[in-house]
Design goal:
three-stranded parallel β-sheet; 7 helices; P-loop_NTPase; alpha/beta
């Protein structure tokens, strides 16, 4: 979740899922903060759109998960922060290498500089999966890390987002209990 802009400027979120939430609610004011503008993409050139809107909004959030590689690439060319959520499963961790390869190519075109963070999501502390996954992200096996030799650790955030029922049931809605996300934003903006 985005941190409210310090300057009081509205925030813009470009995402199909959030746009759907606001449309289904029938009255956006009761489900989203007044300073949050939700807009559906795709745009032909999302990077150009972000450049044009950067001064108007305190934060622009692009949800490119599971979407177009082109949109991801274009968004990273203008991003200040890349936040990559990953569930504690082997398949999710394997996808990270390709995600970071693409992010590195896009970051080479970024005039602002971009900082990347991986955040563990859908974590269930009743199992060993989150701890094991964190260990493998911080000490990757051969060719499963980042960097030129694919042996460097991923930039893993300390904050973990758990697999809580209120998150799982929030599809199509804006969750009301966001303390873990608030902790994550404090960590990333410290």
């Amino acid at each position: 979740m985005p941190k409210p802009a310090a300057n009081g400027s509205p925030q813009r979120e470009l995402t199909p899922s959030t746009h759907g939430r606001s449309r289904r609610s029938g009255h956006r004011a009761s489900t989203a903060p007044a300073n949050l503008v939700v807009e559906r993409y795709p745009f032909d050139d999302i990077a150009e759109y972000i450049r044009a809107k950067r001064a108007e909004f305190g934060a622009i959030v692009v949800d490119a998960g599971g979407g177009s590689a082109r949109i991801f690439h274009e968004a990273v060319t203008e991003a200040n922060l890349l936040l990559v959520p990953v569930a504690p499963t082997k398949i999710e961790r394997r996808k990270l290498v390709a995600t970071f390869d693409e992010a590195e190519r896009a970051a080479a075109r970024n005039p602002h500089g971009v900082t990347a963070h991986v955040v563990m999501v859908k974590a269930d502390d009743r199992t060993s999966l989150p701890g094991r996954a964190k260990g493998q992200l911080l000490e990757p096996a051969e060719c499963e890390g980042i960097g030129p030799d694919r042996d460097e650790p991923f930039p893993l955030a300390e904050t973990t987002i758990h697999s809580w029922v209120h998150y799982m049931e929030a599809f199509g809605e804006i969750p009301t209990e966001l303390s873990e996300y608030a902790n994550l934003m404090k960590e990333l903006t410290a």
